[in-house]
Amino acid sequence: MNICFAPCPVVFDLDGTLIDSAPDIHACVNAVLRLHEVPPLTLDQVRGFIGGGVDLLWRRVVAATALPVEAHRDLVASFMTRYHDATSLTRLYPHVADALGTLADRGYPLGLCTNKPLGPTRVVLDHFGIAQLFRVVIGGDSLPQKKPDPAPLRAAVAGLGAHPDAPRALYVGDSEFDEECARNAGLPFLLFTRGYRKTPIEQLQHQASFDDFARLPLLVEEAAAVG
């Protein structure tokens, strides 16, 4: 029996790639800090802490403040009560919705692989009306592993119908975590340069980089052709 696998899937990171969520994360962090009478952190500080998931975010917050390490668990719980539905300050990057729609119309299976917990991920996708575009959504708590471990990305790609032994897919992200995850999974990486990256572009392994999602459909077609 012949098995037909999906055309080249495209999997996206979320925070710093499709959305600028740093202002909401910043507001939620500072709301928790106020409860503990700790001076607020700046937006740039918090933006620099994003990428490794909520647990790592708060390890970095604790390290940057006078909060005790043993308070970490309670801080995360307090943060999550606010973060779960925090969308008022979050914005889609320009042309994201159009680019996703174009790729979907051209038959590319779309997925999401993020270190953001699955609950807040689904809330923000619904908020922007783009949830229906993604056939597979892998959050930071969907598996025991988080990026840059390749397991979440491999799960997303497999869920989109890629060949299990030789997956043909693309990963689109903005950060060092995303680049390393794609590399670990053996997949081509497209780098969005307006996100939360701290490393110079030339030091990250990528097939192409872009600063405007209007360019993405063409880059995907070019990268898929190479693959």
UniProtKB/TrEMBL annotation:
Cofactor names: Mg(2+)
Highest taxon of source: Bacteria
EC number: 3.1.3.18
Pathway terms, separated by semicolons: Organic acid metabolism; glycolate biosynthesis; glycolate from 2-phosphoglycolate: step 1/1
Entry's Gene Ontology molecular function annotations: phosphoglycolate phosphatase activity
Keywords attached to this entry: Carbohydrate metabolism, Hydrolase, Magnesium, Metal-binding
Binding site for Mg(2+): 13, 15, 174
Alphabetical list of InterPro entries matching this protein: HAD-like_hydrolase_sf, HAD-like_sf, HAD-SF_hydro_IA, HAD_2, HAD_sf, PGP-like_dom2, PGPase_prok
Annotated catalysed reactions: 2-phosphoglycolate + H2O = glycolate + phosphate
Keyword Heme attributed: no
Catalytic residues identified in the record: 13 (nucleophile)
Reported function: Specifically catalyzes the dephosphorylation of 2-phosphoglycolate. Is involved in the dissimilation of the intracellular 2-phosphoglycolate formed during the DNA repair of 3'-phosphoglycolate ends, a major class of DNA lesions induced by oxidative stress.
Family matches, as PANTHER family: PHOSPHOGLYCOLATE PHOSPHATASE (PTHR43434)
Protein family membership: Belongs to the HAD-like hydrolase superfamily. CbbY/CbbZ/Gph/YieH family.
HAMAP family: GPH_hydrolase_bact
Protein name (record): Phosphoglycolate phosphatase
Organism: Paracoccus simplex
Organism phylogeny: Bacteria, Pseudomonadati, Pseudomonadota, Alphaproteobacteria, Rhodobacterales
Encoding gene per record: gph
